[in-house]
What does this fold into?
Amino acid sequence: MLIAHVAAAFVLGGFILTDRLVLRRTFDQIALRPLYEKAVLPTAIAALILIASGAAMMQNAAVYRLKAALGLTTIALFFACPFINARLGKQARFVYRLIALILLAATIALGVSIDNFL
It folds into this structure.
């Protein structure tokens, strides 16, 4: 289960980071539209695998519930991004994306700390 969770996290997290750090800085949003349309299904599958495998590994401890909450919020923000970005101004979009990246980093850090210390 852990391998499926890590693989799905790499697919979804890798796409989020690549999108934020490379694609959005290099290409125009209109040029990226076909890529985003094709990426919805693979990222949705990765998100479902990530959620299901995370739920299967979850234990009855507050730290696991915190990691699950951070992870689910990050996934929700990622999939809501096109809708929210269409309604926000340029600076608000930056803040929104920054929050999503911070949540992603916090989820990863918490997952690593759980693995190392529990």
Observations:
- The helical segments are 2-26, 29-57, 62-87, 90-117.
